[in-house]
């Protein structure tokens, strides 16, 4: 890790999604419509997922993000990870980001497990030589020695998850992004995975975590955001944030 302070800063960030009502249009219909120069637009529904976010996350923060289903918690993580780009505003950051979200999204099912290690490494900005140094540890930790040269389209869901998790966590992050805690694989692998996550949390400069487990947020975080009404409804210490969240939902306990 470098010696510069890690940070993430949202400056008036908003994200809008568009949903097209007619998802079944064929290629032929698209060509005909183009030739006819149809002026009426395809029905589109637009909605703002998040609006006017202004927040700075500093080195040393173990930040929990809580909120009701659909509030935009995971979407905020995807903005930080650059899976989504904001519709408005800017996000500035410093520090290598490792997102434990949508694990294996860049895998190619036609390639073997070993080939996907290098493919995923390239997506994360690593050279072939750098991944070659990590390959042995990835194969051993995932426990897929007998299947590493098999195309992953033949993997079970658990095998796929184990490889994806191991590749993502073999890289030491400065900013660690977690969307719920890993829960795939057999019990022995889960135990190793939880230990590895704890090690990553200890070593990372910033940790940002989304979880529906308020107890987990209380035990692992020192700061908490409550997301509601498309924005940040509360930003403060964990105990106060959880109290605010419970009162917001009219509940005295989770």
Describe the structure.
This protein is of the alpha/beta class. It has 2 domains: 128 residues, P-loop containing nucleotide triphosphate hydrolases (Rossmann fold), CATH 3.40.50.300; 105 residues, P-loop containing nucleotide triphosphate hydrolases (Rossmann fold), CATH 3.40.50.300. It is built from 8 helices and 9 strands. The strands form 2 sheets. Strands 5-6-7-3-8-9 form a 6-stranded mixed beta sheet, with helices on both faces. Strands 2-1-4 form a 3-stranded antiparallel beta sheet, covered by helices on one side. The longest helix has 17 residues. The radius of gyration is 21 Å and the shape is globular. The model has no long low-confidence stretch (mean pLDDT 87).
Task: Give me the number of helical elements.
Answer: 8
Annotated CATH homologous superfamily of the largest domain: P-loop containing nucleotide triphosphate hydrolases
Shape: globular
Q: What number of domains?
A: 2
User: The CATH topology of the largest domain is what?
Assistant: Rossmann fold
Which strand-content bin applies to the residues? 25-35%
Question: How many E-type strands?
Answer: 9
Strand arrangement in the largest pleated sheet: 5-6-7-3-8-9
- Describe the sheet with the most strands: 6 strands, mixed
- Using the CA coordinates, give the radius of gyration: 21 Å
Mean pLDDT: 87
Note the run of SSEs as H and E.
Answer: EHEEHEEHHHEHEHEEH
Q: According to CATH, what is the class of the largest domain?
A: Alpha Beta
CATH architecture title of the largest domain: 3-Layer(aba) Sandwich
Helix content: 25-40%
